[in-house]
């Protein structure tokens, strides 16, 4: 199962499969969610982590019915929103986080752990020990099991372009170019869209991670 990313471990980091890391998701510099994930594999090419549906997590406490991405930065509290305990509401997913790239590729699994497609999250990623801080770039790509694809959230990406807490027009062009480079991999059927990892199952010894400590910071 392991070793499909290529040989060579990253020096100075604990690469033990099953190690619990923290996936911290930020929108416009504000924390949206902090979810524990398990390390599947780490090599020079990147790392794979597993996120389990229903995992205890922290989420930003927002006004009822609101999503952080829809709240204008000027309307957010200067020190960030408080966090409350919750559980990861989305399905199971295997994340591929390639070294030095501005995206992640997710294998999405539905009921019965059935593979239901890939999701490309365009992002900036920073590692601080066991913390994986994600700055979301809004624009994403859905890739179906037959590798047909479509952009997601193009309108809201355009609306955020030019705002100082998001990205400039030049940065927006680079973000879209990053997505286009991943699309070419999907169209060619090359890794990570070559069929590997579509049958992934976490080891039966992996229990659902406990809720981590309160996130260390609500703002980037």
UniProtKB/TrEMBL annotation:
<feature type="domain" description="DUF402">
    <location>
        <begin position="78"/>
        <end position="190"/>
    </location>
</feature>
<dbReference type="InterPro" id="IPR007295">
    <property type="entry name" value="DUF402"/>
</dbReference>
<protein>
    <recommendedName>
        <fullName>DUF402 domain-containing protein</fullName>
    </recommendedName>
</protein>
<dbReference type="InterPro" id="IPR035930">
    <property type="entry name" value="FomD-like_sf"/>
</dbReference>
<dbReference type="Pfam" id="PF04167">
    <property type="entry name" value="DUF402"/>
</dbReference>
């Amino acid at each position: 199962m392991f070793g499909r990313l290529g040989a060579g471990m990253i020096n100075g980091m604990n690469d033990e499969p099953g190690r619990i890391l923290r996936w911290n998701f930020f929108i416009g510099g504000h924390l949206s969610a902090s979810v524990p994930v398990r390390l599947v594999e780490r090599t020079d090419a990147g790392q794979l982590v597993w996120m389990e549906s229903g995992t205890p997590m922290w989420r930003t406490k927002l006004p009822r019915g609101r999503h952080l991405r829809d709240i204008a930065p000027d309307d957010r509290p200067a020190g960030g929103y408080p966090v409350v305990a919750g559980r990861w509401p989305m399905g199971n997913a295997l994340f591929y986080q390639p070294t030095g790239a501005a995206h992640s590729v997710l294998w999405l699994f539905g009921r019965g752990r059935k593979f239901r497609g890939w999701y490309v999250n365009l992002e900036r990623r920073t590692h601080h020990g066991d913390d994986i801080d994600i700055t979301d770039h809004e624009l994403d790509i859905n890739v179906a099991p037959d590798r047909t694809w479509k952009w997601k959230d193009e309108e809201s990406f355009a609306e955020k372009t030019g705002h100082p807490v998001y990205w400039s027009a030049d940065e927006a062009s680079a973000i879209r170019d990053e997505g286009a480079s991943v699309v070419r991999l999907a169209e060619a059927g090359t890794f990570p869209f070559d069929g590997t990892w579509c049958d992934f199952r976490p080891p039966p010894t992996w229990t659902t991670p406990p809720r981590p400590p309160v996130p260390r910071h609500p703002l980037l």
